[in-house]
Write a structure and sequence with these properties.
Layout: H1 10-24, E1 31-34, H2 41-58, E2 63-66, H3 70-80, H4 87-105
Parallel strand pairs: 1-2
Length: 109
């Protein structure tokens, strides 16, 4: 689907992703890292959480984690605004988002 298509729910994303991984990725692969690839922070974290919840239910031989850029840094950069006086707010935003990503990696959101 193109950019004008309806966005799939995290549960649908998880179902299709896990099924595809189970069918085509050998168990010998130690881990799979997901990119945020144009998703918002919230969307990327919700999808990763749903993928890990689904994979835990059906069994997964690999670690499923993240290699996020924008979905890890966007709120931090927004809080910072390029101004040194905002470093504390930026740091708090980064820690909060990193914590969400860590929980999503375990399917614990």
């Amino acid at each position: 689907p193109g950019s004008d298509a309806k966005v799939a729910s995290p549960e649908v994303v998880a179902s299709h992703t896990v099924e595809t991984l189970r069918r085509f990725v050998p168990a010998a692969v130690p881990g799979i890292m997901f990119l945020s690839g144009g998703q918002s922070e919230e969307e990327a974290v919700k999808n990763l959480d749903a993928i890990n919840k689904r994979a835990s239910k059906v069994g997964k031989p690999w670690a499923l984690s993240f290699s996020y850029g924008r979905a890890l840094q966007a709120s931090c950069l927004q809080a910072w605004k390029g101004d040194a006086k905002n470093w504390e707010a930026a740091q708090k935003a980064f820690i909060a988002q990193a914590s969400k990503c860590g929980k999503a990696e375990k399917g614990e959101l």
